[in-house]
User: Fold Integrase core domain-containing protein from Mytilus galloprovincialis.
Amino acid sequence: MIPDEIKQCISKMFYEGYPYRLMHYILEKKKNFQISFQYLQHKVIPRLGLKRRNCRIDIDTAISLAVSEIQNGCNGCENLRRSLKIKYHLQITRSLSRELVRILDADGIERRKGRRLRRRKYISRGPNYVWHLDGYDKLKPFGICIHGCVDGFSRKIIWLQASITNKRPEVVADFFLKAVDNIKAFPSKIRCDPGTENGLTAAIQLTHTSDKKSVIYGSSVYNQRIERYWGWLRQSKSDFWINHFKCLEADGILNVSSQIHKLCLQFVYLPVIQKDLAELTVLWNSHNIRKQNQGDILSGIPDVLYHYPEVYGTSDFCIPADDITLNFFKDQCNHEANLFKKIDEDFEAVLIELRDNLNIPPVIDSVQNARHLFIYLKERMENLLS
Assistant:
């Protein structure tokens, strides 16, 4: 009898695209569940209704979900295929995904065409050897700032957070410490630009490692791992949000010079964008990096490369941290970080009351609903403050 927990684990790995051999390895070595590979592949997986090929799908359902995903900013045939697979357990072929995108998102295809930069070769010894930190400011004109971190070896996203600022040292350090607390360890090195926003994070890293080489400073354009991800984010989602906010401006709905408008936009859209970033993190961390003819990049799934480095002949380079050390660092910046990650409390309290009167949840389920709520809130606040 297979426990429900193991069944859920198998289903999760299946829909995230793990090969059968890797699924078997994880079950035996990491989950301590003994099962033969043949029994897993030919008995357990079919009994769970999991199929890689010849899956029967309702084409109307596929089209409906594809329309919804594309309207909410899903770009590209591979992103669409994997979104449907992971979020809805609906497996469509690559050819069908390409056809859906060609029909439903012709404008997006033209917009994404362009030349690609040739990038330098890069080598990282193993997971947690180097974390690459950087801020993303393409949405900053609208009051939305993103900060992220990528592991140099596995390309796994360590964090991806939307906030009202990514320039405060306390905020960046708070993201860093939460990631460190999650694995109870520090990376061997961090790479970031020499801006003041990274000063506190660098000080924490240097204090714990006692190694001046554990912080690598350099211009953002040379921070290759995270810059590569920002390019993918622009194609996958942020371009959609930029166009959405510019449409609000063009329609005379949004005035970015108005503090009321900007605060209302942050209140409505920050939870929506953070939800998108969480979904994109799952998509990225579970996608299969293809083998390259040139370069030193390992092929594989970022989550697998990060959590199971022994499969690739390397090991984890993290530096363990105890709770006393972590609590000491967190006490230094947590309170101030929370102050800089929120809009004005009095203004927010009024917006929450107005939103709750409409029985609308904190996280809006669609872009159009977010648009309607933003219009309603900014008009009400303008009337109240006029």
